[in-house]
């Protein structure tokens, strides 16, 4: 049963570790300040940053921040407003990618109005709850860091993943020629999303197929990233969601951007939601789990090869 206003059930960790440290706890909800609201969350999403954070491998969330609630993105309805204002009202259907000072996997979350976006009619709450962090990562990686323009050639690694399946569609919407890597079982899926060329990362060498690229959007790091540098034209750009190898980039005469983390940006989120509402971008939800099954949800997201996103149901 959901808790009463003023408290919340939430995904909670008190110490770093594996799945055993991830629990569901009942905790108080702070009162919102003037520029905040409390959202009654319907859906939050699961992202790789959740288990990296729980394992103590996400630097912005160090031991000094423990204990805390996991999760970075959500959708639901406004339950309380910090102050009366023209823009946000109780009952508004909203979604958000929130800062690292709070967690989203919770029935009730204090959200800054600068992080909020209204969910357009025609966009399902599940979709809105699935999409914010992954969409901002794809958007900021391709456009803000990568400067992708119409007519350019881009390779997106992991095109069936949470970030990748949105990146493929954003790049296509921009008018780029899109190459993407995915497993054999996801090739038809990524083609349906608009990829011009789908490459099986298990059986094909992407560097033999995707060449003379303007941009590589790397979601894998390691060997995949290393093999990506020669696919770029001189002066091309590699943007990674992980650690970029700047030395290797220099060796190949290509550009890269230093390690970055996607930031909440309500304006960009509203643009992405607009594309979803228009039917230009679709969000794939692989599976939903109830809050109490958070460990199983994380395990599935991590090891179950989901297509698209995994979401957590906070209403039940
Ligand atoms: N910097 C940031 O702000 C930021 C933000 C979001 C995410 N990230 C990072 O970006 C990465 C991707 O995130 P995500 O949410 O998209 O994860 P995800 O949903 O797990 O997707 C990863 C995708 O990569 C595919 N893949 C696995 N091995 C591959 C290979 N060798 N070549 C090409 N594709 C391969 C997987 O396919 P199969 O399942 O079929 O193997 C899966 O579809 C994670 O490491 C995450 O931590 C960083």
3D architecture notes:
By secondary structure, the protein is α/β, with parallel strands linked by helices. Helix content is 28%, strand content 28%. It contains 9 helices and 16 strands. The strands form 3 sheets. Strands 3, 5, 6, 7, 8, 15 and 16 form a 7-stranded mixed beta sheet that branches. It is globular. The model has no long low-confidence stretch (mean pLDDT 96). NADP nicotinamide-adenine-dinucleotide phosphate (NAP) binds at residues 47-49, 134, 137, 157-158, 160-164, 181, 183, 186, 201, 219-220, 224, 241-242, 260-262, 305. NADP nicotinamide-adenine-dinucleotide phosphate binds at residues 47-49, 134, 137, 157-158, 160-164, 181, 183, 186, 201, 219-220, 224, 241-242, 260-262, 305.
The CATH architecture designation of the largest domain is: Alpha-Beta Complex
Percent of residues in β-strands: 25-35%
Q: What fold name stands as the CATH topology of the largest domain?
A: Quinone Oxidoreductase, Chain A, domain 1
CATH level-four homologous superfamily name of the largest domain: Medium-chain alcohol dehydrogenases, catalytic domain
How many helix segments?
A: 9
Helix content: 25-40%
CATH class of the largest domain, please? Answer: Alpha Beta
Count of individual beta strands = 16
Structure ligands: NADP nicotinamide-adenine-dinucleotide phosphate
Distance between the termini: 8 Å
- Tell me the structural class: alpha/beta
Average pLDDT figure: 96
The coarse silhouette is globular
- Uncertain runs are none
H/E topology pattern: EEEHEEEEEHEHEHEHEHEHEHEHE
| Number of discrete domains | 2
* Overall radius of gyration: 19 Å
Major sheet details: 7 strands, mixed
